[in-house]
Design goal:
237 residues, Muramoyl-pentapeptide Carboxypeptidase, domain 2, two-stranded antiparallel ribbon, binds ligand LVM2DEV6, binds zinc ion, protease, metalloprotease, D-alanyl-D-alanine dipeptidase
């Protein structure tokens, strides 16, 4: 169990709301739908009402300094069935990329692949006390686009399972391009944190607000604070 999963959830009952386009840029086609993730009637571009309010605030902060720039949403609400599908998909993908055949994995190969997958993906838990972050409507994967709608270079693609995904991966590089990746990541982080979000320690693109991870990270930063999560899994009924 990850440490944040011990945080108590006091569900507040806020609805999921659609993320408005073109106010925000939404990645299309949606990457998980493209690989067959089972959304049914649901859409990934939904967030809890309070989270959407804070996302609007983050974008206003961005546009004060960089007119025309927008937050681009890669993924937001994720049903638990989709979390399971994407964990399985990623496991197969990473096994294949290492030239390993799924049918012939040793126990230790299986364990090390799972360890890599779960460094970046949350466990698709059906337990209401330990929901996957995106299934609460309180987590979002984002990047930035400029005034021409062009993706801002962050130095690595969203969902890459490598150290390049760590938010500060380029912090100490003296290479000119690496410096600009770091600056862009800092710009994203700064507007999101100022608007009340927390950032996943291993992923430059994942931010949360009101879920267990957010409560845990908030208490890590303020050890005297007593914070609970207000969002549990939603839309599973
Ligand atoms: C891997 C990425 N898309 C992601 O969302 N990771 C978090 C931790 C999750 O699975 O909740
Ligand atoms: Zn995420």
């Amino acid at each position: 169990m990850k440490p944040y999963q011990h945080i108590a959830i006091v569900e507040c009952g806020e609805p999921l709301l659609p993320i408005p386009e073109p106010l925000f840029s939404l990645v299309s086609p949606h990457p998980y739908t493209t690989v067959g993730a089972p959304y049914g009637e649901k859409s990934p571009f939904y967030l809890r009402e309070g989270v959407l309010k804070h996302l609007i605030e983050a974008q206003a902060l961005l546009q004060k300094e960089f007119p025309g720039w927008r937050i681009q949403v890669f993924d937001a609400y994720r049903p638990i069935a989709v979390q399971q599908y994407m964990v399985d998909h990623t496991f197969r993908d990473v096994a294949q990329s290492k030239g390993l055949s799924l049918g012939r994995l040793t126990e230790s190969e299986r364990e090390s692949l799972l360890e890599l997958v779960y460094e970046f993906w949350a466990v698709p838990s059906l337990n209401p006390a330990t929901p996957p972050p995106h299934s609460t409507g309180g987590a979002i994967d984002v990047t930035l686009v400029d005034e021409f709608g062009q993706a801002v270079a962050m130095g690595s693609p969203i969902d890459e399972l490598s150290p390049r995904s760590y938010p500060d991966h380029f912090a100490t590089s003296i290479d000119f391009r690496d410096r600009s990746f770091h600056e862009h990541r800092q710009r994203l982080r700064s507007i999101m944190l100022t608007a009340g979000f927390q950032q996943h320690p291993n992923e430059w693109w994942h931010f949360c607000l009101g879920d267990q991870m957010w409560a845990w990270l908030t208490m890590q930063a303020n050890p005297d604070a007593k914070v609970t999560a207000r969002y549990g899994a939603v839309g599973e009924g």
